[in-house]
Amino acid sequence: MSRLLRIVLRASRTPLRPTSILYRRAYTTSAAPPPSDDTSPSSSLLIPSYLAQADNSPTDPSSPRGNHKYAIDILEKHIKISENGQEPFKVLFSTLRDACKCPRCVDPHSKQRNFRTTDIPLNIKISECNHTAHGMEVRWTNDIAGYDESHISEYSFDYIFNPDYERYEMTTTGKLRERGLWNKAMLKKFQHWISYEDYMKDDEAFSAAMRRLARHGIIFLKDIPNSRELVEKIATRMGPLRNTFYGSTWDVRTVPEAKNVAYTNQFLNFHMDLMYMNQPPGFQLLHCLENSCDGGESLFSDTFATAFYMYYAQRELFNALTKFNLMYEYNHDQHRYSRKWPVFQTKEMRGKQPDSDSEITIYRVNYSPPFQAPLTRHMINQIRDDEVEINFKALDFFARRLESPEHVFELKLKPGQCVIFENRRVAHARRGFNTSEGRRWLAGAYVDDEDVISKFRELRKAYPDIWRTREEKQREDARISRCNGNDISRLLDPSKTAESLRNWWER
Ligand SMILES: [Zn+2]
């Protein structure tokens, strides 16, 4: 597997994020035994390479890409690809066959595969293999039934070594995308506004707004015509509406004897929506139609900034919240839901050295006290008393920091304005308001995470310059650490100049 990664590093012609390269380069092969013979199993192509290991030999970032020389050897069961005398990458014939995307194997229109992995005979062999301009073409013996000798599989080394799903997750558009963390001062200074007209009609401006949403988790629209229908139009520009028992769109207004605290005029503390569901919505929209009451300001806080701060400054408390599961519930006559989530959901990246800490990336925070279910005896009994105490302490630390004035961005939405925010990143709250005079009416909608991420990817393809990070553009120094530590130091350092802050914000 290490060999795969080595080739990944050297073969990628597409602009991998330098930080990704850093991570891969930093892995070690010392624990991975070298393949001793040709019978060692290799299913490497099916495993995302960031889960695998690579070598720790430096890769020269200045070396020209797309200019490699590959030697191809056909062994008994494997194909071996070597580059300039480096350690080779080996893959089983059957695994390579599985990756064929020729028009016979994958329908060019529907993009559906016309064969099953289980159709591939285990005794499939390569009868012929030749270099092409960007990779190789392969002919088969004992191919899948129905394929004759005219079937030629073509592979670009770029595709084999750097498959799409790998690119997606780690880029600016993926689930593990790099985030720009913020506090009150940062968001106050750089909050992104776009007019309704530009949002709906100017694809480039819309793309830029989506890029801000992907990175910072919150954007604002203004100059929206006064119509209850428009929240749907704004939402469906990103993706299909997420329907729930609240309706495909819904209204936040004061109603008598409200079942949900969001419909009353009390202070509503920081929370995320629908955490009692299996798939809480990814993004939320709130379009202000009326807001003439005294009070009713919207509050937002970046849970990722607090989580990463805890990662660096309070590791024990951070670790506790990655394991502390909280149950959420909604129990009314006609709607009964419950779901358990850990507070922090993280993905571990391999450590830079064999004995060093792993790096992590946070891809979700789950936090919604108003809908929390009791910590039952059953849950408590599963863990020791001292662990329970750490959990409480960690949750308290998280909440206090999240709610502290320097982290809370406050805004009273005006009629004609709309906020869009990432539900499981940006916690939201609302100040109480006085209903004795004036009116307050917000129209809301949700769009699911995967639909918005799909939109991000579509826009990235159409406007690559908007979506590439500065690092990607410059393919610069791989020593820049993954955003998180970097971001935290900048957030905590008040001496940074306005310009350096803006550079960082717009990265
Ligand atoms: Zn094929």
Largest beta-sheet characterization:
6 strands, mixed
What is the fourth-level CATH superfamily of the largest domain?
Answer: Clavaminate synthase-like
Low-confidence stretches: 1-67, 475-486
The global form is globular
Total DSSP E strands: 22
Distance from first to last alpha carbon:
33 Å
The tally of helices reads: 18
Bin the helical content.
25-40%
Regarding CATH, which class of the largest domain? Alpha Beta
**CATH topology call of the largest domain:** Double-stranded beta-helix
Strand order of the largest sheet: 7-8-19-11-22-9
List all distinct small molecules, including ions and cofactors, that are bound in this structure: zinc ion
Helices and strands in order:
Elements: H1 2-11, H2 18-26, E1 70-74, E2 78-83, E3 89-92, H3 93-98, E4 125-131, E5 135-141, E6 152-156, H4 157-161, H5 164-170, H6 184-190, E7 193-195, H7 196-201, H8 203-216, E8 218-222, H9 230-236, E9 249-252, E10 268-271, E11 283-291, E12 294-295, E13 298-302, H10 303-313, H11 315-323, E14 325-331, E15 336-342, E16 344-349, E17 359-365, H12 377-381, H13 385-403, E18 408-411, E19 418-422, E20 426-430, E21 433-434, E22 440-447, H14 449-462, H15 464-467, H16 470-474, H17 483-492, H18 498-505
Helix pairs in contact: 8-14, 10-11, 11-13
Zinc ion (ZN) is lined by residues 100, 102, 104-105, 151, 153.
